[in-house]
Amino acid sequence: MLIEGIDPPRLCRLKVECYAGYRGEQTPRRFYLQKRCFQVQELLDCWLGPEHRYFKVMADDGGVYILRHDTGHDLWELTMFAARGYLEGGGSTPREDS
């Protein structure tokens, strides 16, 4: 699924601003796809992989995103996106690239 105004070949390049809680764990607060800023409205889920941390978030555009943090290299990637209309329309769950 494409995001309006975002060039698909660069979709996975993310800059993420985080909040570090009292335990020092980073939680995304906003992220940037190219020049567009998305505010994280809600943290829906988070989990650990062998080399990555995953965050399922709802952004201010109503979309649901899964952000992957490569903790060893401190890199962020977008691994899944679902538009609000897609979720409300009862479509099947998009496949994650992990």
How would you characterize the overall build of this protein?
With 98 residues, this protein is mostly beta strands. The chain has one domain (9-88). The protein is 5% helix and 52% strand. The chain has a six-stranded antiparallel sheet.
Task: Describe the structure concisely for a colleague.
The chain is mainly beta and 98 residues long. 5% of the residues lie in helices and 52% in strands.
Count of helices? 1
Report Rg: 13 Å
Shape: globular
Low-confidence stretches: 90-98
Number of strands: 6
The rounded distance between the terminal residues' Cα atoms is 17 Å
Q: Percent range for helical residues?
A: under 10%
Count of folded domains = 1
Global mean pLDDT: 79
Main sheet overview: 6 strands, antiparallel
**DSSP strand content:** over 45%
Q: What's the helix-strand series?
A: EEEEEEH
Largest beta sheet: strand ordering: 1-2-3-4-5-6
As an assembly, this protein is single chain
Q: Which structural category fits the helices and strands?
A: mainly beta
Q: Descriptors for this entry?
A:
1 helix, mainly beta, 98 residues, 6 strands, six-stranded antiparallel beta sheet, disordered C terminus
What is the secondary structure topology, with strand pairs?
Elements lengths: L13 E7 L5 E8 L2 E13 L3 E8 L4 E7 L4 E8 L1 H5 L10
Antiparallel strand pairs: 1-2, 2-3, 3-4, 4-5, 5-6
